[in-house]
Write a structure and sequence with these properties.
The chain is α/β, with parallel strands linked by helices and about 325 residues long. About 60% of the residues lie in helices and about 10% in strands. It has 4 domains: about 1-85, Alpha-Beta Complex (Conserved hypothetical protein from pyrococcus furiosus pfu- 392566-001, ParB domain); about 100-165, Arc Repressor Mutant, subunit A (Orthogonal Bundle); about 170-265, no CATH class; about 270-315. A 5-stranded mixed β-sheet has the order 1-5-3-4-2. The longest helix has 26 residues, at about 265-290. The termini are far apart.
Amino acid sequence: MMANTNLQSIDPRILKRNPENPRLIFRADDLQHLEDSIKARGILVPLTVYEDSGEFFIMDGERRWRCAIRLALSSVPVIVQPKPDRMQNIMMMFAIHNARRDWDPLPTAYKLRDLEEMFQAQEGRLPTEIELAELASITRGEVRRLKKLLALPSEYREELMAELEKPRSQQLLTVDHVLEATRGAEALAKRGVVDPAGEERLRRAVVDKFRNKKLNSTVEPRKLARIARAVERDEISSALARQVVEKIVTIPDYTVDDAFTESAAQADAAHAVEILLDRVTTSLDVYRTAATQISPELKERLLAIRTLIDELLRER
């Protein structure tokens, strides 16, 4: 069969998966839902393939192809496109799949690295962040996120890949869990609270607490950065920060929330109020200069705030 862009019918058994497809995980429950739909209505959207030395490789539609094989369909509708070079192939995979909700970040990160290396081989330099985002049809923020995944030690990447093999309902560890743990530990390392070995011990402890369901909020490790900022502002001592970090590492049920409450919570709250009061003071000064009369509503709120401030000062 000669390759062209006309709609054709092809035996699904002769199709092959695209070696450049970043999507590696195909969950059984998702496939079953699609299989039921195909069984009832057929394949409504043709697969997109390219031909290479008499073989047909899937550019778009691998899930439909897998379902067709399971259903033992004798043919599937396809549109045959010209064979792309490898870099074009990877770019098209990103363009086709980047917006899909079930596109797993870690396999995507590996394919982004391939794209970056191919650009370097062709151009003699690494692509800029903007160039790489354009090549992959994703945002610069997503490029940075995927690169953070690639920078993780191999043990964490292997754990995440193993987790992806499980049904979604059974997954205990996610990319965001590991990234948040990494950022929190890095923040403390930058302020000298932990050394490199301590940074890794803390990251491992937080990741394990996610896996063991001791932490319930994905963003809880961000409080580690708030502890680090409190140290930087001399609101708490490095010794206190190290003490609560050691508790996170050594006490199974001790959470990041516990560490924050025991160390930086009061100072952090005070700092937040200071920032807010600075803004309010500036706004009130501008209003005082510009306004000729205070509205009844504003006067009522100002009196309420004054009462609250008086009570707070008396209590302290």
